[in-house]
Sequence to fold (705 residues):
Amino acid sequence: MSTFAPPATDVATHCPYCALQCGIRLDVADGAPRVAGNPEFPVNRGALCIKGFTAAETLDHPERLRAPLVRDARGELVPAAWDEALERIASGVRTTQERHGRDAVGVFGGGSLTNEKAYLLGKLARVGLRTKHVDYNGRFCMSSAASAAIMALGVDRGLPFPVEEIARADAILLVGANPAETMPPLMQYVQEARASGGALVVADPRRTLTAQSATLHLRLAPGTDAALANGLLHVLVRDGLIDREFVDERTEGFDAVRGTVATYWPERTERITGVAEGDLARAARLLGTARRPMVLTARGAEQQAQGVSNVLAFVNLALALGRRRESFAAFGTITGQGNGQGGREHGQKADQLPGYRRIDDASARAHMADVWRVAAHEIPGAGRSAYEMLDGIGHPDGVRALLVIGSNPVVSAPRALHVAERLRALDLLVVADFFLSETARMADVVLPSAQWAEEEGTTTNLEGRVVLRRRAVAPPDGVRTDLEIITAIAERLGRGEWFVSAEPRDVFDELRRATAGGVADYSGITYDRLERGEAVFWPCPSLGHPGTPRLFAERFATPSGRARFHAVRHGEPAEQPDAAFPYHLTTGRVLAQYQSGTQTRRVERLTRIAPEPTAELHPLVARRAGVADGSLVTLVSRRGEAVARARITRDIREDTVFVPFHWGGMESINRLTNPALDPISRMPEFKVCAVRVEPHVPARRAEVA
Ligand code: SF4
Fold:
């Protein structure tokens, strides 16, 4: 007997933007989808930010791409049939690989792609295109936190505990994080902690909205995070405020760290960081006398050429504070992108295979060879990291054809003018996106893809909780899902037998087998469990397994089971202010825009709030530069210049300028940022470079060397 179920008109799903993955209810009853917070989802508990509330406005947007575009003989992008577009891609890939080898083709993914897409994109690179070059924009987001967590704790999961643990903390140190603007629903947990008498200490060069609500704001100079952490630990050791029992029972390597931090006495720490000795002592006392202290880092500390050292220094601090012995919940990182966690687990990272396996691990290669039905030696080795892949375009051993899905590197990569110039040197650039992004505008072939509410898929939020995004509406005619696009490309290249289904459930089932036995084991997670509303955190190694909300309850994921201290020292940022470029530039996000702005710059309610980038300038900086509040300024670094509107405020240090990075063209602040890379994570130094500030002269030269 057939059963007929009318299509749901009130669909429980998740926000397409940041890593909180707020639960939403999407009402599609009258053809104009409306968003409300889902009070039943335990993470946001009904709360949303303005980005979530307006997320449906991108679905039926007039600028949606509804047909493939190919570049014609005159150099114009013109509409084309799918068949023509796919054939152009296949012949371009074939020609490039015949002439220059398989590794001449690269794949660039994104941290907003669902788990299924991230998995299939990595497989497309290694099995479909048989190239080693695949990486993604999450390299620009979470890579330093990930490397540090693996080194110190043995596993990288942003929060190794559920978000409600934040409410139970009685002293929280937030480092380089501004959740009041970037992730507002998370603040309810911070506010609960405060309401119970807990303290909030914020370390940030700016007096952000989050810092304004803090018990104490440590206004450190950009690029001095490791010195601040070492200085805090110095005071804790000096004042007998470390948890010696925890350190002895559950960690290793403390003695070397104690030796290092001994040289970070408060006067020296103040000289390096600009944080007054008294504030340092007060912060140390708030944390050191708390019963349940917690340290949370984010991009401010991580997006630096010393990002891994910075995070390790704060892990040291958390381990020394130790106190939550049964379920160590003293350290976490706040993931940024929507699937920033799952995006780095399933094989779109240059050095990893699905399940968070290392690509140079023989047993991991054997496992994946079995799942993929190829020989282990056929799986390529590690490729170049995101910026290095882009920078190497046009070099003799570099990439010459690039497939970009779910990313807009012309806006989001550092030294953006150089990146755009490298992309112009490609023989073939293919971009799949919903809109004609800045990167898509440069492409030879543009493929229109489906959006979040038009397809099913899973993501993994900042806690390691796997959630199901449901399909609520049909994609526009002419649009395909990314899974269909990946599968179609593989078919055109004669590799279709390895890509038999573009159905999210089928791909997820393969992902479950691929991750079985890995660090991030999803083998016990099913769509049925997620549809029933089960809260499943990885690792979940069998169908009867409840998942693992708290990772380090009994042991850390290191061979010894103990967390590892790492002795780290402060080092100068790659570029320091000088006479020509006298200020630090630091970049970040604002409430009403998201990442490169491809979606949010097209939502009218958001552009009314944040129509253009503002440069936060201290009054002294503005006076020296001769600029007035609200006027346009030109910011110049050694790599380029950009235009922003001056916002004069005492909420920023006198030596620092802040500009958000969500805009393109002359408003793209990444034209200025420094691609100096962390030696371990290959994270570029987005958070600090040297700039000067000038009044904007409209006709001035647009670019500098
Ligand atoms: Fe969406 Fe993040 Fe805002 Fe929640 S906090 S509504 S997930 S952008």
Residues 15, 17-18, 20-22, 44, 48-49, 51-52, 183-185 surround iron/sulfur cluster (CB under 6 Å).
